[in-house]
Amino acid sequence: MVTAEPGCAFRWMMLSHAGADQESLWGFGIEPAGGGTVLTHHFVAS
C-alpha cells in the first residue's frame, strides 16, 4: 500500500517474485456521487 486516504483514494504497487518493486502503480479514486460512491480505477506503468 502506497496511499491510503479514507474517502479519497487507495493505491498499491506489486512486487515481483524476487520481492523487487514492479514499475506500475494500481489504485482507486473514491468520490461521493448522489446517494452512493464512484470508484475510478487507476493504473500507471512507468
What does this structure look like?
With 46 residues, this protein is mostly beta strands. It has one domain (3-45). 0% of the residues lie in helices and 59% in strands. The protein is built from no helices and four strands. It has strands at 3-5, 9-12, 24-33, 36-45. A four-stranded antiparallel β-sheet has the order 1-2-3-4, with no helix packed on it. It is elongated. The mean pLDDT is 92.
Topology record:
Layout: E1 3-5, E2 9-12, E3 24-33, E4 36-45
Antiparallel strand pairs: 1-2, 2-3, 3-4
Number of strands: 4
Mean pLDDT, all residues:
92
State which percent range the strand residues make up. over 45%
How far apart are the termini? 17 Å
- Silhouette: elongated
Rg over C-alpha atoms, rounded to the nearest angstrom: 13 Å
Strand-pairing-aware structural class: mainly beta
Largest beta sheet: strand ordering = 1-2-3-4
Write out key terms for the chains shown.
single chain, 46 residues, mainly beta, four-stranded antiparallel sheet, 4 strands, 0% helix
